[in-house]
Amino acid sequence: MDIKNINATLAVSPQIHPADLAAIANQGFRSIICNRPDGEGADQPAFKEISDAAAKAGLECQYIPVTAGRVKDSDAVAFGAAMQSLPKPTLAYCRTGTRSATLWSLDQGARGTPLPSILETTRKAGYDMSGVVRRIANGGRTPTDTADASHDIVIVGGGAAGIAVASSLHARDSDLDIAIIDPADIHYYQPGWTMVGGGIFDASTTAKTMASLIPRDVHWIKAAVSAFEPQNNAVILDGCRVVKYRRLIVAPGLKLDWNGVEGLVETLGKNGVTSNYRYDLAPYTWKLVSEMKAGRAVFTQPPMPIKCAGAPQKALYLSADHWRRAGVLDNIDIRFCNAGNVLFGVKEYVPALMDYMERYHADLMFGHRLVGIDGPARKAWFAVTDETGNERQEELEFDMIHVVPPQTAPDFIRVSPLADAAGWVDVDQNTLRHKHFDNIWSIGDVMNAPNAKTAAAARKQAPTVANNILHDMGHARSVAHYDGYGSCPLTVERGKIVLAEFGYGGKLLPSMPTWLINGQKPTRAAWFLKEKILPPMYWRAMLRGKEWLARPEMVG
């Protein structure tokens, strides 16, 4: 724990964990404030886990979630009210402690505490509040006529898409003034988490520091985005700093809505409830699978869109294959509860996948959307839609359940001028340029082009956007078009993969000759690609601006 004292009644810290609460109580704290929303990070415990542990330690606990980049005046008021009512001293935490320190600073400013005193107090605690000065002095309003920073190209998001497009731009023109905005310290290779859940990869191999991956000479603005003002070519950061741009690329990924299933956050990581969609839970998947000898295993898939549409069934296949090899498959009742009505969206791959569902005796339950879960009781509830559109609720008991949460665009995207009616960034599906703002592009999971949301898609999108920005600047001859390419290596058993590769409209787009990898059949060559080739290709090529098998299509 890295607890920083603000004053005699308040301390702030980065993310805490349930195991820390007893020690926190022993240090004399009497209450906890959580300022971090559930589901913000891949390795983050839910608030319910913290509050349960706090109660056992005799601590009061309040949940005042503040979305990264959206510290509102009302949040500061709520924080101040909590500080008035809770027993002291109080420990407030978020991802790094900065949001908690910011809330305290805003509340103190509203109470008339001299500004120099606020800045000095937070500086001694290790938090720089200089970015909030204008907000305190300006009544929470953020002027956009001046900027704290200005760059030719600003990229929002340092995930696979953001770093890949930064590297593609930098590789084309190393003199470009590029900045990436992202608050995270760690970058995750999320396609590897299926393999972690299958006992093949170690989780630590899927994580690297953000600082080690951002290209040299690309500025890293380590902050969260609060809002966009495209009419002013401005991005507003948490703390009300303003970054101006000439061209903007929006690539923050999507939001995993763990709270979208009632009772889920309270039981994640225990009671047989797991998910390969969270870094810290994928190892728990393997623990459950490797220890299970009999019972019912349930695997869920929410409504589309989700990142990697094949991942829910990949977890099933690898689990079932382990049980088959261990000789216990006949003792396990496997259910695949899919909110949709097809096993896979591209029909050419369905026959091979159905063969494996039959091999593993898996019961396919289409039209089943997970809506609630009771971990201790080992029960889950599904909204079941029949062929006529009528909906009923169905209860299903389980011994283990692999949950894929509902997924949406991040909050700060959904409420922005960049979003379409469904909340996704509104782009032309070919050029990936925004339909209404000519100097804005988007790539990755957050935009509304009708492609699969996979890392392979971002790998093909990055050079397309890089080329098109340079064309817009007059530095490239032709416009590039993205064909909707996405890839889903479906791990049907340990050692074999059905390599689905397709573009817009389900058009098959194989990247390998069929004599080497026939994507409609399970092959060992595709497994070798997934296990041995794709991870280094991700780290050393895609994120380094080397566009292997990703050259954009030029159209004129």
UniProtKB/TrEMBL annotation:
The protein's GO terms of the molecular function aspect are: transferase activity
The record's listing under Pfam families reads: BLH_phosphatase (PF04273), Pyr_redox_2 (PF07992)
Give a yes or no for keyword Transferase in this entry: yes
Tell me the InterPro entries matching this sequence: BLH_phosphatase-like, FAD/NAD-bd_sf, FAD/NAD-binding_dom, Prot-tyrosine_phosphatase-like, Sulphide_quinone_reductase
Q: What transmembrane ranges does the database entry give?
A: none
Q: Which domain of life is it from?
A: Bacteria
The Beta-lactamase hydrolase-like protein phosphatase-like domain extends over: 2-109
Q: Name all FAD/NAD(P)-binding domain ranges.
A: 151-268
Alphabetically sorted, this entry's keywords are: Transferase
What NCBIfam families does its record include? TIGR01244 family sulfur transferase
**Protein name per its UniProtKB record:** TIGR01244 family sulfur transferase
Organism, scientific name: Hoeflea poritis
